[in-house]
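FW: tagging you since you asked about this chain on Friday. Here's the raw sequence from the shared folder, copied in full. Didn't touch anything.
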Amino acid sequence: MNFNINDFIIIALASITILAISVLAIYLVRKSQRLEALKSIETADNYYRNDEYDKGLSIYLKSLPYVEKTYGENSSMAADTFMKIGKSYIHLSSPLKAEDYIIKAKDHYDNLISSNPSEAASFYNTLGNLNESLKRYDAALHYYLKASEILESSNNENTSLAKCYLNIAIVYDNQKKYKKSVAMYRKAISIFEKDDQNIEKVIALSYFNLGVALYVQNKYESALECLEKSLIIRSKKLKIHPDIASCQHYIACVNLEMGKLDDAMALLIKSLKIKVSTLGNHHPEYWKTYFKLKNAYLQLGLAKEEFEKWVDEKLLESQIA
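HL: got it, structure written out here
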């Protein structure tokens, strides 16, 4: 069989066409996979934002192979997915599983310190969360401080920096370094209160923790001021809630130290009623308030054997005032 130049041209064009079609098909498949992965990640993100961490985690884990295949194992998309899986595991109280994924993202975020400091700081803050949940407080403090240093170097006082200070303060509390924790809580609050976002919850937490740290240092007037601020903020949106009960408990503790026995007992009763209705009478928080109330009761010189009956009568009162 003889071929002329036109035949070769036709064959070449056909081969090029087939190749082009194949390349286009591969491109369209990969594009479809990329869009599908992005759609799945977006769905998981919505679950995560709504605190439905188990549902989000399931989708992140299913999406990860497609993300790695489509974008590459060392891509920013893969690192971001590793982080989201790790954070989900932290929220679900599985820090050891979280660690496996978060460490995979470390090299990527290490390289962002100069180009994208906020993302790098967020990563180190998560490493701090991880180590704190594992009670590795020195390591947690190291990463929280690194995150705060990165944000401070950008001269931008925002809620991210304030949350770093808050996390540092909580670690200091766990290490019983209360003077240091008080300083950090105050730095966090000073930034939070300048923010116009809806962050009352974190401000209330900061005031509460600051109040407790001052209380354990016997600084009762300052502690009372902070705890009452926390209670006021929390009471705007909550009523029968353990956070309200915690504020009442510690305000009562301060009142006891200041000799205000009647005020303390009234608050302890309120706290106990909330805790039994929200947590049940087997929860450690219930018993913490129960025994504090018992001590206050005995300080009044009342009969020890009458205490349980007296408490039962108070708890039977239907209205939580």
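FW: The chain has 15 helices and no strands.
HL: agreed, and The radius of gyration is 28 Å.
FW: great, closing this out.
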